[in-house]
Amino acid sequence: MLQELVTILTQKFLVFTFQVSIMEDLDLKRQRIFGRHVKRLREEKGFSQDDIAARCRVTKGSLSVIENGNRNFSFTTLLALAKALEVEPKKLLDIDFELFEE
């Protein structure tokens, strides 16, 4: 009986670990999609990374990391990005994250 319980718990742990891994992959994918969107908006407006970084008080390196999809950042940074890009915050989020492919 104890062995059965251990087997069941082990299986549930493996399933949980797999689900967490899938969610982490999905989060990274969404961060990359968002980063490309920010970069596209920045370039359409003719702003450099230096321009936007200075306007939203982040380093150029931090902005680069966001644009490359390698950073999960705060809500206040999202608001600062929108202001620096001269767009409404909803424009930054106006992406169907599920339809984009890598």
Automatic annotation (TrEMBL):
Pfam families: HTH_3
Highest taxon of source: Bacteria
GO cellular component: cytosol
Gene Ontology MF, one: DNA-binding transcription factor activity
CDD domains: HTH_XRE
Keywords: DNA-binding
Domain HTH cro/C1-type: 38-92
PANTHER family for this protein: HTH-TYPE TRANSCRIPTIONAL REGULATOR (PTHR46797), METHYLPHOSPHONATE SYNTHASE (PTHR46797:SF1)
Protein name per UniProt: XRE family transcriptional regulator
Species of the source: Zunongwangia atlantica 22II14-10F7
